Amino acid sequence: MQSPFHSQKHLTSSPCAAIQTDLPHITIIPSIVPVIGIQLHKAKLKLKAGQRAELTATVLPSQASNQEIIWTCMNPHIVEIHTEKQKATVIGKQAGRAVIIVTTAEGKFRDLCIVHVQPYMTKPK
């Protein structure tokens, strides 16, 4: 007589070909790192008319997924800017003060640099 608490199990072996192959498909999505700020490497810049200088912007954190930035010059008659991604070449055009603003495409974080352009002097008197 068998005990009511004892059950009989029959184990069968199956060949490798019978292993279940319809497992759920898992897709790994890369994590998105949000922008938390932006920083220009210079807050002030002094130039003479005709002189060039470089500005560099860094999106924070450096691993942020969206590194796109927008450069803006508030006084384009004072300075001219030529941009390429995180770098800008600033050229003094005439004496005065200009503000260059860099803005992140994501989050709208901003930083600025005040540029003072001095007149070009060939011979001081």
Structure description:
With 125 residues, the chain is an all-beta fold. It has a domain at 37-118: Immunoglobulin-like (Sandwich). Helix content is 0%, strand content 42%. It has no helices and 8 strands. It has strands spanning 37-40, 44-48, 52-60, 69-73, 79-84, 87-92, 96-104, 110-118. A 4-stranded antiparallel β-sheet has the order 1-3-6-5, with no helix packed on it. Strand 7 and strand 8 (110-118) form a beta hairpin. The mean pLDDT is 86. This is Ig-like domain-containing protein. InterPro entries: Big_2 (IPR003343), Invasin/intimin_cell_adhesion (IPR008964). Pfam families: Big_2 (PF02368). Residues 34-114 form the BIG2 domain.
Short précis:
The protein has 125 residues and is mainly beta. Helices cover 0% and strands 42% of the residues.
Mean pLDDT metric: 86
In the CATH hierarchy, the third-tier topology of one domain is known as Immunoglobulin-like
Largest sheet: 4 strands, antiparallel
Secondary structure class reads mainly beta
Order of helices and strands: EEEEEEEE
The shape is rod-shaped
The largest beta-sheet arranges its strands as: 1-3-6-5
Give the helix proportion (percent range). under 10%
Oligomer: single chain
Distance between the termini: 123 Å
Top-tier CATH class of one domain: Mainly Beta
Low-confidence blocks of residues: none
Protein name: Ig-like domain-containing protein
Organism: Bacillus bruguierae
